Amino acid sequence: MSFLSETLSRVKPSPTIAMTNLARELAAEGRDIISLSAGEPDFDTPAHIREAAKAAIDAGQTRYTAVDGIPQLKQAICDKFARDNGLDYIPAQITVGTGGKQVLYNALMATLNPGDEVIIPAPYWVSYPDMVALAGGTPVVIEAGIEAGYRISADRLEAAITPRTKWVILNSPSNPTGAGYGESHMRALTDVLMRHPQVWIMSDDMYEHLVFDDFRFVTPAQVEPGLKDRTLTVNGVSKAYAMTGWRIGYAGGPVELIRAMGTIQSQSTSNPCSVSQHAAVAALTGPQDYIAESRAVFQRRRDLVVSGLNQCEGIDCPTPEGAFYVYPSIAGLIGRRTPGGVEITDDRTFAMELLNATGVAVVFGEAFGLAPHFRISYAASDAQLIDAIDRIRGFCGTLR
């Protein structure tokens, strides 16, 4: 009898974390590494948020809190949803977790039974299918390739829905592609979902504020209010306010679901960090000018990276609408060989050979459910990005 649970057979370690850890290990060994694998802003958390955390510590706000969030934060989240998304929630419809990942996981654990299906567009964030599997559900993946702008169509969504479908997960702008669903495209999807009342919507809006050019962010319950009572709208402070390590995610949804998620959290982590919660209040209620400033930096970096990658032989890099990722295709490099004779058979081989040859760490597309691609996070300095693109261009030029 194995000591370890059979549950482990349904899940694999996060490839993004694995690649980031490998890059750190190589750097610690003295290698010249540029890691573009982690999805994390490279800016400091804004000063007023840091000051709010210090004030909370000095005021003794270091004890247990309510399991799923302090009242001040829940009210700030209600105000945020009303201000930014036109969604009206009361505090009883709000949950706060230790990052957006826990919020998503709690919802799946609270609702899925064996045989329940969850529709996940691919490319997807690496954790979606594994969280569904851990919760006992069945991931149903719909591929949306580069020719579709990495967005699923209404017809593809309709065809994937069965009597067993319980959730569909939508992520806009997307990790890993940066692709966003504009209002007309989102309405086409919500029209489908209105015809299937058994299907709930999990909207991962973590990159809401990181959108570029004239793209306008919308969330499903905003576009179709008729879906609000079966939508969990998930967000957090990690990406918009450079607070990844503070670990605060949140969601708004129906009271019954929020209570069930609270029950799961009460028997797992209990409350999120008390100090981080007070910092999140400052993030949501304080000055918002930081968002526009960081967005401008990310847009400049996006343009730099897209232009540079499209000058690399065999790479095709679309321009994303948001987030801080690009997801280029390497279809033009499959079958070529490195100077050492290694054949580029897939994107995993490409990523490993690129790392070995140049010290640039990226994440292979297979991890996100659509190959042959790779993901770059351009949450790095301009100098690092320019250097990395030069190294990638040189590597591609050596393949024959």
From TrEMBL:
It comes from Paracoccus sphaerophysae. Its cofactor is pyridoxal 5'-phosphate. Keywords: Aminotransferase, Pyridoxal phosphate, Transferase. Belongs to the class-I pyridoxal-phosphate-dependent aminotransferase family. PROSITE patterns: AA_TRANSFER_CLASS_1. Homodimer. Coiled coil: none annotated. Its EC number is 2.6.1.-. It is an enzyme of class 2 (transferase). InterPro entries: Aminotransferase_I/II_large, AspAT/PAT-like, NHTrfase_class1_PyrdxlP-BS, PyrdxlP-dep_Trfase, PyrdxlP-dep_Trfase_major, PyrdxlP-dep_Trfase_small. Pfam families: Aminotran_1_2 (PF00155). It catalyses: L-aspartate + 2-oxoglutarate = oxaloacetate + L-glutamate. GO terms for biological process: amino acid metabolic process. It comes from the Bacteria. One of its GO terms (molecular function) is L-aspartate:2-oxoglutarate aminotransferase activity. Residues 32-392 form the Aminotransferase class I/classII large domain. Transmembrane segments: none annotated. This is Aminotransferase.
